[in-house]
Fold this sequence. Notes:
By secondary structure, the chain is an alpha+beta fold. Helices cover 29% and strands 21% of the residues. The chain contains five helices and eight strands, in the order H-H-E-E-E-E-E-H-E-H-E-H-E. It has an eight-stranded mixed β-sheet with strand order 3-2-1-8-4-5-6-7, with helices on one face. Strand 4 and strand 5 (120-123) form a beta hairpin.
Amino acid sequence: MPFFYNKFHPSNKQGTPWLPIIIGLSLAAIVSTSTSAIAYAKSTSKPENPIPPSTAIDRVIVDKSDRILKLMSDGKVIRSYRIALGGSPTGHKQQEGDQRTPVGVYTLDYKNENSIAYRSIHISYPNDEDKARAQSLGVNPGGDIMIHGQMNGFGYLALFNQRRDWTDGCIAVANDEMDGIMDAVILGTTIEIVE
Length: 195
């Protein structure tokens, strides 16, 4: 008989009781995941106090290092959201495909209800400076940088997706958070993205 059969078989009374250990570890993983899911659901569910329509969001600030997006009004934080960035988030976007989120001051210039991710707001990257830099390097600056929800059909994965950087340079939030951002932010609002 194979070595592992004798060592791990339940009839081996001298061996380690593997079945209780495996069951215990499985239960611990389930409880841990459930607790995380409940905590995440509470943090990302529709806010009990939605942003009143009379509150004008006049600036959006994205802190790439802290992975936070803040909706601002008159210098005060109205809401903040945990974000995911591109797979290579450090530094300013240099060219198409580098998976970086740009750094600088841009404008939120249009909303897209039919994007490949759940709803999106376009960021006005590349600006003239970005285009000139890319041209001097002989590369395409890229574009289509958005604030968006989860990829269509995968909103239920936000619990896991938002723990890692998974976009191609966009700024991702959970779908219900994207609903709140879309409702609160008007076109022409400034977005400041910092390292």
